[in-house]
Amino acid sequence: MKRTWIADISLLLVALIWGSTFIIVQAAVQTLPPLAFNAIRFLGAAALFFVVMACSPKRLSVRFSKTLIQDGIKLGIWLFGGYAFQTIGLLYTTTTNTGFITGLSVVLVPFLMVLLAKERLQGQTWIAALLALLGLYLLTFNGKGFHWNLGDVLVLLCAVCFAMHIALTGRYAKLHDAVALVTMQFAVVGVLALFSSLLLEPIMLPAELFAAMLAPKVWFALLVSIGLSTGFGFWAQTWSQQYTSPARVAIIFAMEPVFAAITGVAFANEKLGQLALWGSMCIFLSMIIAEWKWRPREVH
User: Fold this and answer.
1) Element holding 276 (H helix, E strand)
2) What pLDDT does residue 268 have?
3) 10 Å Cβ neighbour count for 266?
4) Rg (alpha carbons) of the chain, rounded to whole number
5) pLDDT digits 0-9 by tens, 196-246
6) Residues 6 or more apart from 58 whose CB is under 8 A from it?
7) Are 113 and 166 spatial neighbours (Cβ–Cβ below 8 Å)?
8) What is the 8-class DSSP label of residue 202?
9) CA atoms within 13 A of residue 42's CA, in its CB half-sphere
10) How far apart are CA 108 and CA 14, in angstroms?
11) d(Cα 83, Cα 200) in Å, to the nearest integer?
12) Residues 107, 247: Cα–Cα separation, whole Å
């Protein structure tokens, strides 16, 4: 199997993990504030990967070059920005609007690749991106209207941050060790989330924090988030972007809300309308278009 196919299947698995664990994290942040949760989540993932590297025969000084540290910091800042703007935006807008606007990264990534990398993208990439955006709209709003507010603007900045993270990962993943690169950005996100939590969220006493972390839904969400959705998820994304384009990554990640909707139906007794089902079909079709190898017709 070609590495491009392995990469795309890995990214689809990541979208499945992120979409299916959303309901778990959503329950946990009702007890532990979101920024505090993300601080523990990313610092835990950084510590886990650092231990993995420390047990490797390859020296840490070789893995953490000056350039890698700089690139990891850049990725960490953009990744933190995505989570921070999304979290703050949720205070002023609905989860429905948040899900759709975050999905705008599907079309933002191709634009960024044209601007940053001067890439000339094929027409099928734009078609797939726009079809995925249409699918996201149908899946998210299910025929309901959309009205902008302050929270939507903040979430739009979140979409820009996530799009920049995907675009820059495509550039840096080919230059560095994948494990070291994600470890560096995990540490950056964790530290920034920690300071943001201390500034913006109610300060919890150590005993309160420890009690909150011991709540079953919180420790389970942290366990899943640190090892699976954060550790494996972002490592798989970084490794996969050595072999596939950022635009295709964004289109594949558009499947995340589809998996989230399926999880909601299966475990939270949510219902999907007919338009939402059509939206899911559009997103799935966009993936097929993105993967299809178009060849010019031979003239006889």
Assistant:
1) helix 274-291
2) 64
3) 11
4) 19
5) 999 988 888 888 888 999 999 999 999 999 999 999 999 999 999 999 888
6) none
7) no
8) P
9) 24
10) 20
11) 14
12) 8
Angle at 293 between CA 292 and CA 297, to 5 degrees: 120
**What pLDDT is attached to residue 144?**
62
Per the listing, tokens 């941050």 go with 161
For residues 270 and 261, the answer to whether their CB atoms sit within 8 Å is yes
Tell me the three state secondary structure of residue 144.
Answer: coil
Residue with tokens 């990891």: 72
pLDDT digits (tens, 9 = 90+) for 182-193: 999 999 999 999
Query: Cα separation of 103 and 290, whole Å?
Result: 17
CB 5 within 8 A of CB 12: no
**Token pair recorded at residue 72:** 């990891």
The single-letter code of the amino acid at 214 is L
Whether pLDDT at 296 is above 50: no
At position 37, the amino acid (one-letter code) is F
264: which 2 tokens? 């909601």
Contact (CB, 8 A) for 11 and 240: yes
Tokens of 123: 């027409």
User: How many Å apart are CA 126 and CA 109, to the nearest integer?
Assistant: 10
Q: Which residues contact 93 (CB under 8 A, 6 or more apart)?
A: 149, 150, 151, 152, 154, 155
| Both tokens assigned to 102 | 């975050």
Residue 60: alpha-carbon gap to chain centroid? 27
Two tokens at 279?
Answer: 């939206």
Q: Is the CB of residue 165 less than 8 Å from the CB of residue 105?
A: no
Closest to 96 in 3D by CA, of 250, 207, 261? 261
